[in-house]
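REQUEST FORM: STRUCTURE PREDICTION
Request ID: SP-0412
Submitted by: Lab K.M.
Chain count: 1
Length (residues): 171
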Amino acid sequence: MQIKLVATDVDGVWTDGGLYYDKDGNELKKFNVKDGAGVKLLKTAGIPVCVITAKNSPMVEKRAKELRVDYLYQGVEDKIRAISALVKMLNLSFEEIAYIGDDFNDVPLLRKAGCSATPADASQIIQQEADWVLTKKGGEGVFREFVEKLLIEMGVYNTVYEEMIKCHDEN
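STATUS: Completed
RESULT:
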């Protein structure tokens, strides 16, 4: 397996999929820090990350900037179209993309990606579309679980892990 780009949905993957509002009606999202470590693992491995979501959210933009996500697409209903353009721009094939999503609008990418996964709490019908059904639920660090499993399958996890430890030792 040779993955050169990892793409991910947000709601139901990086978050628990819940809708939270403060007293003024502002939307809130809770992200799991472990997923941020997943992004760092990929960056250490030299694999860019693409966040693609149907919603527009300032919180997603903020989180993506904090983690230095390479590509952020918000307000995207047709995820296949957006990723197809990115694939073309990066001169990749869909076989070189790994994708994690949890709902109907993710199915085309789950089907087309070289490797696909879904959280444990995705519906049964969506789970059937993915190569891997992970053990964690959305918002519980499932993106990191996906990344670790992917790097293990690619045979590079130990090298990436040691590089991450080395970087922390130097700080």
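NOTES: The chain has a mean pLDDT of 94.
Reviewed by: T.R.
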